[in-house]
From TrEMBL:
One of its GO terms (cellular component) is cytoplasm. This is CDGSH iron-sulfur domain-containing protein. Keywords: 2Fe-2S, Iron, Iron-sulfur, Metal-binding. It holds the Pfam family zf-CDGSH. GO terms for molecular function: 2 iron, 2 sulfur cluster binding; metal ion binding. Residues 27-71 form the Iron-binding zinc finger CDGSH type domain. It comes from Rhodococcus opacus.
Length: 71
């Protein structure tokens, strides 16, 4: 997992880290909205957003990607 800090980054910045074969990790004060534009509340400093579509708690990751068969 690699994240690239931006020049002059501070605590108010949002960082999104792409996890290989896993979720997007969102760190910072990001607003996450549902399809209707309503905010999805979270009290976590870091949230994992699903990229595989198998989660049961969309849009958040529940580690369902780990159950995927590899070729």
């Amino acid at each position: 997992m690699n994240s690239i800090p931006s020049a002059g980054a501070d605590e108010s910045d949002v960082t999104i880290t792409v996890c290989p074969d896993g979720p997007l990790l969102v760190r910072g004060a990001a607003r996450i909205l549902d399809p209707e534009g309503n905010p999805l509340g979270t009290d976590r400093a870091t949230v994992a957003l699903c990229r595989c579509g198998r989660t049961s708690i969309a849009p958040f990751c529940d580690s369902s990607h780990k159950k995927r068969r590899r070729p």
